[in-house]
Amino acid sequence: MSKTYRPNNDWFQITNTTEGGRSTARLDIYDEIGYWGTDTQTVARQLRGLEADQLDVHINSNGGDAFAGIAIMNILRDFPGDVTVTIDGIAASAASVIAMCGDKIVMNRGSQMMIHDASGFCYGDAAEMAKMIESLDVVSDSIADVYAGRAGGTREQWREVMKSEQWYRAEEAVTAGLADEVADSEEAEISNQRLMIFNHAGRDEAPAPFMPQTTHEDFQAEPGKPKENTRKEDTMSDALKNGIRERLGMTAQVADITDDMFLAALDEALNEGDTKVEAHLPEGTSLIETAVLEQIQADATAGRAALEAQETAAREARVDAAVKAGKIPPARREHWLNALKADEEGAGAVLDSLEPGLIPLAAVGVDHDPEMTEDDKTYNALFGEKKKEA
Q1: Total Cβ atoms within 10 A of residue 363
Q2: 3-state DSSP: the chain helix, strand, coil percent, rounded to 5?
Q3: Which CATH number is associated with domain 2-218?
Q4: Which terminus, N or C, of the chain has the lesser number of Cβ atoms within 10 Å?
Q5: What are the Basic and acidic residues biased-composition ranges (predicted)?
Q6: CA–CA distance, 198 with 186 (Å, rounded to integer)
Q7: Tell me: the pLDDT tens digits for 102-118?
């Protein structure tokens, strides 16, 4: 099943197909962008209406309206499915900006890409010209950000590159980081639009393009040279080599020992039954048997429990002494135990400062004489305590 969206002006065409339950949409941009009757809103509306798992964007365009190119690029970036861009013939100017939307950018065999600063027309006085310069700088900065986001580097570095028109063959675009791979499929003809509007009529007429040697902070502009692989090889430190040399009993200096020599010495040490490679522990470290370690840990646990028991007993004795001295009521015993556990020094100082005898040890009016009979207690309550006989 297929469905085609074809605008009044045919500078782009969208085809949506479904096969095997997976839908694929194709967008062809095969003419100048945005100038001749089809506005960007129409493109945006139709792209946002696409519902597909995959979007294949094919480009063969000399570019056109810079703002239209940036807008279409951003709309395609927001596409929910995977986006693959294929440069069938040429992606120049604004068309190269659109190409940067792809999750993968493929340069078809024989295709070309061109980047440059934004340009425009202006009629008016010096003030109007100044406004145009400012506007063009803003647009070019935005485009430079797009290239930097794809290939590395900074806005300023790509602006410097864009000041002179840069043409890339398929392989050169990949080397520069502006594309991911070159496809060996049937090439399309270079766009039939006139190339005379540019400084150079295609890559064959242009000088060697800019090739970043590295990316990001080490980004360097030097035309004609590809990016260099700056990845450092993993190396073994001299300290580690010396340690291995000593343990293997090698007498040669580290600088004179090759990897093969290290491996040969290691093989010899492992193959000799009576030869042992001793383990060297860091200074201050000792080996200990597992059983001994477990016993030490058990003893430490028991010691902590004994210490906690002693501290608990000491707190209880301190609080009980305060109760006996009449400093605190028995009902507050648990409170003071918790206070001492939380803050031994602070709570202990408060407890020590209390005056003894503040709390009566027996209820007022109650005689605790164990020999007193019930009749004696009644008599004392009515007439006062009887005097004991001498």
Answers
A1: 7
A2: 45, 15, 40
A3: 3.90.226.10
A4: C
A5: 215-234
A6: 26
A7: 999 999 988 999 998 87
Q: Looking at this protein, which amino acid is placed at residue 167?
A: W
State the residue for tokens 């040669």: 252
* Cβ burial, residue 166 (10 Å; 0-12/13-18/19+): buried
> In the structure, what pLDDT confidence band is assigned to residue 365 with cuts at 50, 70 and 90?
very low
- Helices and strands, counts by H and E, the chain: 12, 9
| Alpha-carbon distances, residue 92 vs 166, 176, 221, 224 (angstroms) | 10, 15, 20, 19
Residue 72 and residue 61: Cα distance in Å, rounded? 14
Tens digit of each residue's pLDDT (9 = 90 or more) over 269-299: 777 655 454 555 566 667 778 888 888 888 8
- The residues facing 105 across adjacent strands are 85
What angle do helix axes 333-342 and 344-353 make, rounded to 10 degrees?
Answer: 140
Could you give the maximum distance between any two Cα atoms of the chain, in Å? Answer: 143
DSSP structure class, residue 168: E
Record the tokens describing residue 274, joined without a space. 């009576």
Q: What percent of the chain has pLDDT above 90?
A: 11
Q: How far are the Cα atoms of 114, 158, 200, 212 from residue 222, in angstroms, in the given order?
A: 17, 12, 19, 7
Q: Which amino acid is at 53?
A: D
| 136 vs 133: CA distance, rounded Å | 5
Model-wide pTM > 0.85: no
> Which among 51, 57, 105 is positioned nearest to 80, based on CA atoms?
51
* Interatomic CA distance for residues 282 and 380, integer angstroms: 86
Number of neighbouring beta carbons within 10 Å of residue 85? 26
Q: Which residue has the tokens 């004991």?
A: 388
CA distances from 332 to 318, 353, 355 (A): 13, 16, 16
